Amino acid sequence: MFGLELWEVILAVAVTLFAGFVKGAVGFAMPMIMLSSFASFLPPHTALALLILPTLVTNVMQAFRQGVGAAWGSVRNYRLFILMIILFIPISATMVDGIPQALMYALLGGPIVAFTIWQLSGRQIILPTRHRAVTETCLGIIGGLYGGISGIWGPPLIIYLLSINAPKQESVRILGVVFLTGAVILTGSHLVSGVLNAQTIPLSALMVLPALIGMRLGFAAHDKLDPVAFRRWTLILLGLAGANLLRKALMG
């Protein structure tokens, strides 16, 4: 089917369903789960292509769940981060063939694991608001550079939101807004790069339905989570994603 074995398609659908559930529950991790899982049985470019369209569609749902006004407020509040994502995803998308996969996974996974261990140990990092502009700009650049290469640009923003103790609903909404912005840029960039092509676009479109079903189920779970549990599960999932990226880096 579209160049894949049937078992590969079924496994990809199952992974996407689960990734959609996690995204609905905590607001992120879908591309990380999909990329790290797909890369275990699919070529790197195919793995990246499959996550692009479901990421785009689910982020529309997440960003506008509380309405257009709330989404626009998030855009204003985090405009510097969003601007850096817009600028740097297209730049790094042109480097997708020039950076070793193992190096990319190590550079992303290492800081994620270190931050998660630090936070779960009870030694929380609090970023002063007077440095917000500089912090958002730097983390946005980092997120954009990783995003074009791997399809993953969320960890720098997640780390920032945890560090400023952003409320649960606001965190999920701004993640949706930023992820949607990046997803639009990523889709356009890889239509140009060739990662999305006549063979991979139908496969990516096939992943949209399981992603939406999983996300609906995740929304129901999210609404029942108290803020402490939400933060804990966010850190746990962030840490697991980072550890898996390090595993992939070590395996080459």
Automatic annotation (TrEMBL):
Localization terms from the record: Cell membrane
Gene Ontology CC entries for this record: plasma membrane
Protein topology in the membrane: Multi-pass membrane protein
TM segment ranges: 6-26, 38-57, 77-96, 103-121, 141-162, 174-195, 201-221, 233-250
KW Hydrolase (keyword) present: no
Keyword annotations of the record: Cell membrane, Membrane, Transmembrane, Transmembrane helix, Transport
Similarity-based family: Belongs to the 4-toluene sulfonate uptake permease (TSUP) (TC 2.A.102) family.
Organism: Thioclava atlantica
Name of this protein: Probable membrane transporter protein
Claim: Lipid biosynthesis is one of the keywords in the record: no
Pfam families: TauE (PF01925)
InterPro entries: TM_pro_TauE-like (IPR002781), TSUP (IPR052017)
